[in-house]
């Protein structure tokens, strides 16, 4: 799972449109001479907040990924669907139960509609990030199939 979170960091940017027909802003997670990482919400109703503790030029050592959003639906179960592309070629689709009713893996499991959720994940993997563009689309769904969060992350390593 940590490697997937890592891929998510180095992931996709498809501009999205909110309920008013306007695009959500593009947020920069890091911007150095060797690596640029950007993200945007693909949820039509709300934006999400993401941050990283350091710019992931190489994934050696520990770093933290943080996310925050306001829940529009309660979360008893949470499922993640990831799609990863490298230089425009789709390379991975992955579905993962993040938490199930009797097996919560993260603190946001069991949270109710209207609550502000903030989650921090520690990533401690030794993974080489290849040169090029990595795009990831992450969609989180609850037990009733409601979209809890959706975001696109793009990482460009030169």
From TrEMBL:
**What domain of life does the UniProt record list for this protein's source?**
Eukaryota
Recite the UniProt keywords alphabetically. Answer: Signal
Offer one example of a GO biological process linked to this entry: innate immune response
Domain MD-2-related lipid-recognition intervals: 39-155
Q: Where is the signal peptide?
A: 1-19
Q: Which SUPFAM superfamilies match?
A: E set domains
What is this protein identified as? MD-2-related lipid-recognition domain-containing protein
Q: Which species is listed as the source?
A: Albula goreensis
């Amino acid at each position: 799972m940590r490697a997937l979170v890592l891929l998510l960091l180095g992931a996709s940017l498809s501009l999205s449109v909110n309920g008013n027909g306007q695009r959500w802003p593009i947020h920069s997670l890091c911007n150095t001479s060797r690596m640029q990482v950007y993200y945007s919400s693909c949820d039509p109703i709300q934006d999400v907040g993401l941050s990283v503790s350091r710019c992931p030029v190489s994934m050696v050592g520990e770093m933290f990924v943080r996310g925050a959003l306001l829940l529009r639906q309660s979360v008893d179960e949470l499922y993640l669907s990831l799609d990863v592309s490298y230089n425009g070629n789709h390379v991975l689709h992955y579905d993962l139960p993040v938490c199930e009713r009797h097996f919560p893996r993260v603190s946001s499991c069991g949270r109710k509609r209207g609550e502000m959720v903030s989650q921090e994940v520690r990533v401690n993997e030794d993974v080489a990030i290849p040169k090029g563009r990595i795009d990831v689309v992450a969609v989180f769904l609850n037990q009733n199939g409601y979209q809890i969060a959706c975001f696109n992350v793009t990482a460009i390593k030169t």
